[in-house]
Structure prediction request, 426 residues.
Amino acid sequence: MSKTFQAVKGMNDCLPTDSPVWQYLEGCLREVVAGYGYQEIRTPIVENTQLFCRSIGEVTDIVEKEMYTFVDKGEDSLTMRPEGTASTVRAGIEHGLLYNQQQRLWYMGPMFRREKPQKGRYRQFHQFGVETFGYPGPDIDAELIALSARLWQKLGFDDKVELQINSLGSNQAREAYKQVLIEYFQTNLSQLDEDSQRRLKSNPLRILDSKNPEMVELIDNAPKFSEHLDQESAAHFTGLCEKLELLGIRYTVNPTLVRGLDYYNRTVFEWVTTELGAQGTICAGGRYDGLVAQLGGQATQGCGFAMGLERIILLLEQQSDFKSKLSASVDVYICGLGEKAEAFSIQYAEKLRNKAPSVKVQLHCGGGNFKKQLKKADRSGAKVALIFGEDEVNAQSVAVKFLRENKPQEMLTAQSVLESIGELLG
Ligand code: ATP
Ligand code: MG
Prediction:
Protein backbone atom coordinates (compact mmCIF):
# COMPACT_ATOMS: atom_id res chain seq x y z
CA MET A 1 0.00 0.00 0.00
CA SER A 2 1.33 3.45 -0.79
CA LYS A 3 1.84 6.05 1.89
CA THR A 4 -1.08 8.31 2.73
CA PHE A 5 -0.66 12.00 3.33
CA GLN A 6 -1.59 14.20 6.23
CA ALA A 7 -2.20 17.93 6.40
CA VAL A 8 0.77 20.07 7.42
CA LYS A 9 1.02 20.34 11.21
CA GLY A 10 -1.03 23.21 12.58
CA MET A 11 -3.01 23.60 9.36
CA ASN A 12 -6.58 22.38 9.52
CA ASP A 13 -9.11 21.02 7.08
CA CYS A 14 -12.56 22.50 7.32
CA LEU A 15 -14.73 19.42 6.82
CA PRO A 16 -18.36 19.41 5.63
CA THR A 17 -19.47 19.05 9.25
CA ASP A 18 -17.38 22.09 10.22
CA SER A 19 -18.37 24.43 7.43
CA PRO A 20 -21.90 25.40 8.65
CA VAL A 21 -20.49 27.17 11.71
CA TRP A 22 -17.89 28.96 9.55
CA GLN A 23 -20.58 30.05 7.12
CA TYR A 24 -22.75 31.25 9.98
CA LEU A 25 -19.90 33.30 11.45
CA GLU A 26 -18.86 34.72 8.08
CA GLY A 27 -22.47 35.70 7.40
CA CYS A 28 -22.73 37.50 10.74
CA LEU A 29 -19.46 39.34 10.08
CA ARG A 30 -20.57 40.47 6.64
CA GLU A 31 -23.88 41.69 8.04
CA VAL A 32 -22.26 43.66 10.84
CA VAL A 33 -19.68 45.47 8.66
CA ALA A 34 -22.32 46.20 6.03
CA GLY A 35 -24.32 47.91 8.78
CA TYR A 36 -21.42 50.32 9.26
CA GLY A 37 -20.82 50.97 5.54
CA TYR A 38 -17.43 49.23 5.27
CA GLN A 39 -16.06 47.92 1.97
CA GLU A 40 -14.20 44.68 1.38
CA ILE A 41 -10.59 44.49 0.20
CA ARG A 42 -8.87 41.26 -0.89
CA THR A 43 -5.10 41.09 -1.15
CA PRO A 44 -2.74 38.26 -2.16
CA ILE A 45 -1.68 35.67 0.40
CA VAL A 46 2.00 36.18 -0.45
CA GLU A 47 3.88 39.50 -0.27
CA ASN A 48 7.48 40.67 -0.39
CA THR A 49 9.13 39.75 2.90
CA GLN A 50 10.35 43.29 3.50
CA LEU A 51 6.76 44.57 3.71
CA PHE A 52 6.24 42.62 6.94
CA CYS A 53 9.72 43.29 8.37
CA ARG A 54 9.29 47.02 7.93
CA SER A 55 5.74 47.25 9.28
CA ILE A 56 5.42 44.62 12.01
CA GLY A 57 9.01 45.31 13.16
CA GLU A 58 12.24 43.28 13.02
CA VAL A 59 12.29 42.64 16.78
CA THR A 60 8.87 41.00 17.21
CA ASP A 61 7.78 37.38 17.65
CA ILE A 62 6.20 37.33 14.21
CA VAL A 63 9.22 38.54 12.24
CA GLU A 64 11.88 36.87 14.37
CA LYS A 65 10.34 33.42 14.57
CA GLU A 66 6.98 32.92 12.97
CA MET A 67 7.04 33.85 9.30
CA TYR A 68 6.84 31.34 6.45
CA THR A 69 9.42 32.83 4.13
CA PHE A 70 10.84 31.37 0.94
CA VAL A 71 13.00 32.45 -1.96
CA ASP A 72 11.05 32.38 -5.20
CA LYS A 73 13.25 30.51 -7.71
CA GLY A 74 16.42 32.17 -6.48
CA GLU A 75 15.04 35.67 -6.92
CA ASP A 76 12.72 37.46 -4.46
CA SER A 77 12.20 36.68 -0.82
CA LEU A 78 8.46 36.18 -0.33
CA THR A 79 6.41 35.58 2.81
CA MET A 80 3.00 34.03 3.45
CA ARG A 81 1.11 36.85 5.13
CA PRO A 82 1.11 36.58 8.94
CA GLU A 83 -1.51 39.34 9.31
CA GLY A 84 -3.60 41.65 7.14
CA THR A 85 -2.76 45.25 8.01
CA ALA A 86 0.55 45.49 6.13
CA SER A 87 -0.97 44.12 2.93
CA THR A 88 -3.97 46.45 3.19
CA VAL A 89 -1.70 49.47 3.60
CA ARG A 90 0.52 48.30 0.74
CA ALA A 91 -2.50 47.92 -1.56
CA GLY A 92 -3.95 51.25 -0.40
CA ILE A 93 -0.74 53.11 -1.26
CA GLU A 94 -0.19 51.21 -4.51
CA HIS A 95 -3.68 51.96 -5.82
CA GLY A 96 -4.02 55.51 -4.50
CA LEU A 97 -6.81 54.70 -2.02
CA LEU A 98 -5.28 56.56 0.87
CA TYR A 99 -3.98 59.89 -0.44
CA ASN A 100 -6.38 62.65 0.57
CA GLN A 101 -9.13 60.12 1.18
CA GLN A 102 -10.91 58.36 3.96
CA GLN A 103 -11.48 54.62 3.83
CA ARG A 104 -13.31 52.08 5.94
CA LEU A 105 -12.24 48.62 4.79
CA TRP A 106 -12.57 45.00 5.89
CA TYR A 107 -10.98 41.70 4.92
CA MET A 108 -11.22 38.06 5.84
CA GLY A 109 -8.93 35.13 5.09
CA PRO A 110 -6.12 32.79 6.11
CA MET A 111 -2.93 33.99 7.84
CA PHE A 112 0.22 31.98 8.46
CA ARG A 113 2.50 31.90 11.49
CA ARG A 114 4.91 29.16 12.46
CA GLU A 115 3.80 28.84 16.08
CA LYS A 116 3.52 25.86 18.39
CA PRO A 117 0.09 24.41 17.52
CA GLN A 118 -2.35 24.12 20.42
CA LYS A 119 -6.01 24.85 21.14
CA GLY A 120 -6.74 28.29 19.65
CA ARG A 121 -3.28 28.58 18.09
CA TYR A 122 -2.56 27.23 14.62
CA ARG A 123 -0.09 27.70 11.80
CA GLN A 124 -2.77 28.50 9.28
CA PHE A 125 -5.54 30.43 10.97
CA HIS A 126 -8.18 32.88 9.83
CA GLN A 127 -8.66 36.51 10.62
CA PHE A 128 -11.41 38.96 10.00
CA GLY A 129 -10.12 42.52 10.17
CA VAL A 130 -11.11 46.10 9.55
CA GLU A 131 -8.80 48.97 8.68
CA THR A 132 -9.74 52.65 8.49
CA PHE A 133 -7.66 55.45 7.04
CA GLY A 134 -7.73 59.24 7.28
CA TYR A 135 -9.60 59.56 10.58
CA PRO A 136 -7.63 61.39 13.25
CA GLY A 137 -10.09 61.49 16.15
CA PRO A 138 -11.14 58.91 18.72
CA ASP A 139 -14.60 58.70 17.11
CA ILE A 140 -13.36 56.05 14.69
CA ASP A 141 -11.57 54.14 17.49
CA ALA A 142 -14.91 54.03 19.32
CA GLU A 143 -16.73 52.94 16.15
CA LEU A 144 -14.38 49.98 15.69
CA ILE A 145 -14.96 48.91 19.25
CA ALA A 146 -18.74 49.34 18.90
CA LEU A 147 -18.68 47.26 15.72
CA SER A 148 -16.88 44.42 17.45
CA ALA A 149 -19.15 44.68 20.51
CA ARG A 150 -22.16 44.38 18.19
CA LEU A 151 -20.71 41.20 16.77
CA TRP A 152 -20.31 39.59 20.22
CA GLN A 153 -23.91 40.49 20.93
CA LYS A 154 -25.08 38.98 17.66
CA LEU A 155 -23.09 35.81 18.35
CA GLY A 156 -24.51 35.63 21.87
CA PHE A 157 -21.36 35.72 23.99
CA ASP A 158 -21.10 39.40 24.91
CA ASP A 159 -21.20 38.35 28.58
CA LYS A 160 -18.08 36.23 28.10
CA VAL A 161 -15.71 38.89 26.76
CA GLU A 162 -14.02 41.87 28.31
CA LEU A 163 -12.62 44.96 26.61
CA GLN A 164 -9.18 46.16 27.64
CA ILE A 165 -7.79 49.43 26.37
CA ASN A 166 -4.58 51.40 26.71
CA SER A 167 -2.72 54.24 25.03
CA LEU A 168 0.79 53.96 23.64
CA GLY A 169 1.05 57.72 23.09
CA SER A 170 3.05 59.52 20.43
CA ASN A 171 6.32 58.21 18.97
CA GLN A 172 8.22 60.76 20.99
CA ALA A 173 6.54 59.85 24.28
CA ARG A 174 7.11 56.18 23.53
CA GLU A 175 10.83 56.73 22.93
CA ALA A 176 11.11 58.50 26.28
CA TYR A 177 9.15 55.71 27.99
CA LYS A 178 11.42 53.08 26.42
CA GLN A 179 14.40 54.66 28.20
CA VAL A 180 12.53 54.50 31.51
CA LEU A 181 11.72 50.84 30.85
CA ILE A 182 15.30 49.98 29.91
CA GLU A 183 16.50 51.47 33.20
CA TYR A 184 13.88 49.54 35.18
CA PHE A 185 14.59 46.18 33.54
CA GLN A 186 18.33 46.70 33.69
CA THR A 187 18.19 46.84 37.46
CA ASN A 188 16.27 43.51 37.34
CA LEU A 189 18.31 41.90 34.60
CA SER A 190 18.52 38.43 36.17
CA GLN A 191 14.73 38.09 36.17
CA LEU A 192 14.47 38.56 32.41
CA ASP A 193 14.23 35.52 30.15
CA GLU A 194 16.52 35.11 27.15
CA ASP A 195 14.20 36.76 24.62
CA SER A 196 13.66 39.72 26.89
CA GLN A 197 17.36 40.21 27.63
CA ARG A 198 18.05 40.27 23.92
CA ARG A 199 15.22 42.73 23.30
CA LEU A 200 16.01 44.99 26.21
CA LYS A 201 17.90 47.58 24.20
CA SER A 202 16.19 47.26 20.83
CA ASN A 203 12.55 46.88 21.81
CA PRO A 204 11.83 46.97 25.57
CA LEU A 205 8.07 47.39 24.98
CA ARG A 206 8.00 43.80 23.74
CA ILE A 207 9.02 42.66 27.22
CA LEU A 208 5.70 43.95 28.57
CA ASP A 209 3.97 41.74 26.02
CA SER A 210 5.78 38.59 27.23
CA LYS A 211 3.62 35.61 28.15
CA ASN A 212 6.27 34.07 30.39
CA PRO A 213 4.50 33.41 33.73
CA GLU A 214 7.77 33.87 35.61
CA MET A 215 7.93 37.49 34.54
CA VAL A 216 4.37 38.49 35.49
CA GLU A 217 5.33 40.22 38.71
CA LEU A 218 8.27 42.03 37.19
CA ILE A 219 6.03 43.32 34.39
CA ASP A 220 3.24 44.30 36.76
CA ASN A 221 5.67 46.42 38.76
CA ALA A 222 7.19 48.13 35.73
CA PRO A 223 6.73 51.90 35.37
CA LYS A 224 3.43 52.64 33.62
CA PHE A 225 3.18 54.40 30.31
CA SER A 226 0.22 56.44 31.51
CA GLU A 227 2.66 58.47 33.60
CA HIS A 228 4.62 59.37 30.46
CA LEU A 229 1.77 59.98 28.05
CA ASP A 230 1.95 63.17 25.95
CA GLN A 231 -0.91 65.66 26.33
CA GLU A 232 -2.48 65.16 22.91
CA SER A 233 -2.54 61.38 23.28
CA ALA A 234 -3.99 61.72 26.76
CA ALA A 235 -6.80 63.89 25.33
CA HIS A 236 -7.37 61.33 22.56
CA PHE A 237 -7.61 58.58 25.16
CA THR A 238 -10.05 60.55 27.31
CA GLY A 239 -12.11 61.21 24.19
CA LEU A 240 -12.27 57.49 23.47
CA CYS A 241 -13.29 56.67 27.05
CA GLU A 242 -16.06 59.27 26.90
CA LYS A 243 -17.42 57.81 23.67
CA LEU A 244 -17.37 54.28 25.04
CA GLU A 245 -19.32 55.53 28.03
CA LEU A 246 -21.84 57.24 25.71
CA LEU A 247 -22.30 53.91 23.96
CA GLY A 248 -22.57 51.98 27.22
CA ILE A 249 -19.56 49.82 26.37
CA ARG A 250 -17.73 48.66 29.47
CA TYR A 251 -13.93 48.64 29.45
CA THR A 252 -10.91 48.14 31.66
CA VAL A 253 -7.75 50.20 31.28
CA ASN A 254 -4.84 47.76 31.16
CA PRO A 255 -1.59 49.74 31.50
CA THR A 256 0.59 46.81 30.38
CA LEU A 257 -1.30 46.23 27.14
CA VAL A 258 1.21 47.01 24.36
CA ARG A 259 0.39 44.54 21.54
CA GLY A 260 2.92 42.37 19.71
CA LEU A 261 3.41 44.52 16.62
CA ASP A 262 5.52 47.65 16.42
CA TYR A 263 3.28 49.85 14.30
CA TYR A 264 0.78 50.84 17.00
CA ASN A 265 0.54 54.28 18.61
CA ARG A 266 -2.08 55.85 20.88
CA THR A 267 -5.12 53.55 21.20
CA VAL A 268 -4.58 49.82 21.58
CA PHE A 269 -7.32 47.41 22.62
CA GLU A 270 -8.04 43.73 23.06
CA TRP A 271 -11.20 41.72 23.65
CA VAL A 272 -10.33 38.89 25.98
CA THR A 273 -12.17 35.91 27.41
CA THR A 274 -11.37 33.56 30.26
CA GLU A 275 -13.13 30.67 28.48
CA LEU A 276 -10.29 29.62 26.17
CA GLY A 277 -7.36 29.08 28.51
CA ALA A 278 -4.11 30.73 27.46
CA GLN A 279 -5.43 31.73 24.03
CA GLY A 280 -7.84 34.27 25.49
CA THR A 281 -7.53 37.18 23.05
CA ILE A 282 -10.19 36.97 20.37
CA CYS A 283 -9.80 40.44 18.85
CA ALA A 284 -7.03 42.99 18.97
CA GLY A 285 -6.25 46.28 17.36
CA GLY A 286 -5.47 49.92 17.63
CA ARG A 287 -4.17 53.00 15.94
CA TYR A 288 -1.20 53.04 13.56
CA ASP A 289 -0.88 56.65 12.45
CA GLY A 290 2.73 56.29 11.30
CA LEU A 291 2.47 53.13 9.22
CA VAL A 292 1.34 54.56 5.87
CA ALA A 293 4.26 57.00 5.74
CA GLN A 294 6.61 54.31 7.01
CA LEU A 295 5.67 52.16 4.00
CA GLY A 296 6.26 55.02 1.57
CA GLY A 297 2.82 56.63 1.32
CA GLN A 298 1.71 60.17 2.10
CA ALA A 299 1.20 60.30 5.88
CA THR A 300 -2.35 59.55 6.98
CA GLN A 301 -3.91 58.08 10.10
CA GLY A 302 -4.84 54.43 10.42
CA CYS A 303 -6.88 52.47 12.93
CA GLY A 304 -8.05 48.86 12.80
CA PHE A 305 -8.37 45.48 14.43
CA ALA A 306 -8.19 41.79 13.61
CA MET A 307 -10.04 38.91 15.17
CA GLY A 308 -9.09 35.24 15.20
CA LEU A 309 -11.99 33.26 13.78
CA GLU A 310 -10.92 29.85 15.16
CA ARG A 311 -11.08 31.24 18.70
CA ILE A 312 -14.50 32.76 18.06
CA ILE A 313 -15.73 29.42 16.75
CA LEU A 314 -14.45 27.69 19.91
CA LEU A 315 -16.57 30.16 21.89
CA LEU A 316 -19.59 29.58 19.68
CA GLU A 317 -19.30 25.82 20.05
CA GLN A 318 -19.39 26.16 23.82
CA GLN A 319 -22.97 27.44 23.55
CA SER A 320 -25.50 24.70 24.21
CA ASP A 321 -27.88 25.91 21.49
CA PHE A 322 -25.35 26.88 18.83
CA LYS A 323 -26.39 24.13 16.40
CA SER A 324 -29.87 25.59 16.15
CA LYS A 325 -28.35 28.78 14.71
CA LEU A 326 -26.83 26.93 11.79
CA SER A 327 -28.78 26.47 8.60
CA ALA A 328 -29.31 22.98 7.21
CA SER A 329 -27.63 22.19 3.90
CA VAL A 330 -30.73 20.49 2.51
CA ASP A 331 -34.42 21.52 2.85
CA VAL A 332 -36.11 19.16 0.42
CA TYR A 333 -35.06 15.63 -0.59
CA ILE A 334 -36.56 14.19 -3.75
CA CYS A 335 -36.94 10.44 -4.18
CA GLY A 336 -37.75 8.65 -7.44
CA LEU A 337 -38.72 4.96 -7.38
CA GLY A 338 -38.27 3.19 -10.68
CA GLU A 339 -37.10 4.34 -14.09
CA LYS A 340 -40.13 6.43 -14.97
CA ALA A 341 -40.14 8.26 -11.61
CA GLU A 342 -36.39 8.85 -11.82
CA ALA A 343 -36.78 10.55 -15.19
CA PHE A 344 -39.63 12.63 -13.82
CA SER A 345 -37.90 13.62 -10.58
CA ILE A 346 -34.67 14.82 -12.19
CA GLN A 347 -36.73 17.32 -14.18
CA TYR A 348 -38.95 18.13 -11.23
CA ALA A 349 -35.93 19.01 -9.07
CA GLU A 350 -34.81 21.57 -11.65
CA LYS A 351 -38.35 23.02 -11.86
CA LEU A 352 -38.43 23.36 -8.09
CA ARG A 353 -35.07 25.17 -8.11
CA ASN A 354 -36.39 27.54 -10.80
CA LYS A 355 -39.49 28.31 -8.75
CA ALA A 356 -37.83 28.59 -5.37
CA PRO A 357 -34.15 29.55 -5.76
CA SER A 358 -33.58 29.90 -2.02
CA VAL A 359 -34.77 26.38 -1.21
CA LYS A 360 -32.02 23.75 -0.97
CA VAL A 361 -33.12 20.79 -3.04
CA GLN A 362 -31.26 17.48 -3.09
CA LEU A 363 -32.18 14.82 -5.61
CA HIS A 364 -31.66 11.19 -4.71
CA CYS A 365 -29.05 9.69 -7.02
CA GLY A 366 -27.98 6.08 -7.32
CA GLY A 367 -31.34 4.30 -7.32
CA GLY A 368 -32.30 1.86 -4.60
CA ASN A 369 -35.53 0.86 -2.91
CA PHE A 370 -37.94 3.01 -0.89
CA LYS A 371 -36.33 2.23 2.47
CA LYS A 372 -32.84 3.10 1.28
CA GLN A 373 -33.96 6.36 -0.30
CA LEU A 374 -35.86 7.46 2.80
CA LYS A 375 -32.87 6.71 4.98
CA LYS A 376 -30.78 9.03 2.81
CA ALA A 377 -33.53 11.65 2.96
CA ASP A 378 -33.48 11.53 6.74
CA ARG A 379 -29.68 11.75 6.93
CA SER A 380 -29.62 14.75 4.60
CA GLY A 381 -31.24 16.84 7.30
CA ALA A 382 -34.12 17.81 4.98
CA LYS A 383 -37.44 18.80 6.49
CA VAL A 384 -39.50 17.30 3.72
CA ALA A 385 -39.14 14.33 1.36
CA LEU A 386 -40.99 14.44 -1.96
CA ILE A 387 -41.57 10.88 -3.16
CA PHE A 388 -42.38 9.89 -6.73
CA GLY A 389 -43.33 6.37 -7.81
CA GLU A 390 -44.82 5.29 -11.10
CA ASP A 391 -48.40 5.84 -9.84
CA GLU A 392 -47.59 9.38 -8.70
CA VAL A 393 -46.02 10.22 -12.05
CA ASN A 394 -49.05 8.89 -13.94
CA ALA A 395 -51.33 10.98 -11.72
CA GLN A 396 -48.97 14.03 -11.76
CA SER A 397 -48.99 13.89 -7.99
CA VAL A 398 -46.40 13.52 -5.23
CA ALA A 399 -46.26 12.01 -1.74
CA VAL A 400 -45.04 14.58 0.79
CA LYS A 401 -43.39 13.13 3.88
CA PHE A 402 -42.57 15.40 6.83
CA LEU A 403 -39.27 14.19 8.22
CA ARG A 404 -38.99 16.39 11.33
CA GLU A 405 -42.62 16.78 12.36
CA ASN A 406 -45.17 14.35 13.65
CA LYS A 407 -47.54 14.94 10.73
CA PRO A 408 -49.21 12.42 8.41
CA GLN A 409 -47.92 12.03 4.89
CA GLU A 410 -49.90 14.01 2.28
CA MET A 411 -50.69 13.34 -1.36
CA LEU A 412 -50.66 16.60 -3.37
CA THR A 413 -50.48 17.52 -7.02
CA ALA A 414 -46.92 17.95 -8.29
CA GLN A 415 -47.83 21.43 -9.55
CA SER A 416 -49.24 22.63 -6.21
CA VAL A 417 -46.06 21.58 -4.41
CA LEU A 418 -44.03 23.71 -6.84
CA GLU A 419 -46.26 26.68 -5.92
CA SER A 420 -46.39 26.16 -2.18
CA ILE A 421 -43.03 24.69 -1.17
CA GLY A 422 -42.36 27.65 1.16
CA GLU A 423 -45.50 26.89 3.18
CA LEU A 424 -44.76 23.17 3.29
CA LEU A 425 -41.36 23.97 4.80
CA GLY A 426 -43.02 26.18 7.38
P1 ATP B 1 -1.48 36.01 20.72
O1 ATP B 1 -1.15 36.93 21.80
O2 ATP B 1 -2.59 35.06 21.07
O3 ATP B 1 -0.29 35.33 20.11
P2 ATP B 1 -1.24 38.07 18.78
O4 ATP B 1 -1.08 39.27 19.60
O5 ATP B 1 -0.06 37.44 18.16
O6 ATP B 1 -2.07 36.94 19.58
P3 ATP B 1 -2.51 39.48 16.62
O7 ATP B 1 -1.34 39.50 15.75
O8 ATP B 1 -2.93 40.73 17.26
O9 ATP B 1 -2.35 38.32 17.69
O10 ATP B 1 -3.76 38.87 15.82
C1 ATP B 1 -5.11 39.17 16.15
C2 ATP B 1 -5.88 37.94 16.56
O11 ATP B 1 -5.64 36.86 15.70
C3 ATP B 1 -5.50 37.39 17.92
O12 ATP B 1 -6.13 38.11 18.92
C4 ATP B 1 -6.02 35.98 17.84
O13 ATP B 1 -7.42 35.95 18.07
C5 ATP B 1 -5.75 35.63 16.41
N1 ATP B 1 -4.50 34.85 16.29
C6 ATP B 1 -3.23 35.29 16.28
N2 ATP B 1 -2.36 34.29 16.11
C7 ATP B 1 -3.11 33.16 15.98
C8 ATP B 1 -2.80 31.78 15.75
N3 ATP B 1 -1.55 31.35 15.59
N4 ATP B 1 -3.83 30.90 15.69
C9 ATP B 1 -5.10 31.30 15.82
N5 ATP B 1 -5.46 32.60 16.03
C10 ATP B 1 -4.48 33.52 16.11
MG1 MG C 1 1.18 35.78 18.67
